[in-house]
Amino acid sequence: QITDLDVDGSGRLYLSAWDGAGYSGSPDKGYVIRAVPANWTYQAFPDVTKSGINELAGLLKSASAVARLSASQELIARADKQASDAALAVATDALLPLYARVAGIYTYAQATGEAAIPALVTLTNDADVREHALRALADRKAWVKDVPTAPFLAGLKDPSPRVQASAIIGL
């Protein structure tokens, strides 16, 4: 009867149960269990504040959501042209998995702000990421007035119900 779980940057899974779950140790106390795969070897998670742009871009492509989030937050914190260019390169790379491209889109949008609008509009032409590009375009009230409505109107006619929903919400 676990009540929560979390994965750290090195891949360890932690499971917890509340008081009274009764499965480990005392039935009167909650507990935390760490789980790792068989033959797993610990690898320390990099200090993203000391990582270069290329390493952060690599983490943005990672299968680990923890790594992607850490890299995204660091790129946004740096908020310079190199950081935003790295995020855009991930967002526009059609060979990458969707999760990496989506991380790139939101990182780019947050790091670049209003200046991200033209590239995000271009990404609405890519069916694989259209839904997320529309969401990113409509995400910030401070600059939504400068976002064209054409991509959202086109999204209303998209065959994907998810894109349609993003277009409706964005409008």
What does this structure look like?
The protein contains eight helices and three strands; from the N terminus they run E-E-E-H-H-H-H-H-H-H-H. By secondary structure, it is mostly helical. It has a three-stranded antiparallel beta sheet with strand order 1-2-3, with no helix packed on it. Strand 1 and strand 2 form a beta hairpin. The chain starts with a strand and ends with a helix.
Summarize the structure.
This protein is mainly alpha-helical. It is built from 8 helices and 3 strands, in the order βββαααααααα.
Helices and strands, in N-to-C order? EEEHHHHHHHH
Report the average pLDDT across residues.
92
The oligomeric state is single chain
Instruction: Pick out the low-confidence regions.
Output: none
Largest sheet: 3 strands, antiparallel
Number of strands: 3
Strand order of the largest sheet: 1-2-3
**Helix fraction by DSSP (H/I, runs of at least 4):** 40-55%
Q: Please state the overall shape, judged from the principal axes of the Cα atoms.
A: globular
Structural category is mainly alpha
The number of helical runs is 8
Distance between the termini: 43 Å
Estimated share of beta-strand residues: 5-15%
Q: Radius of gyration, rounded?
A: 20 Å
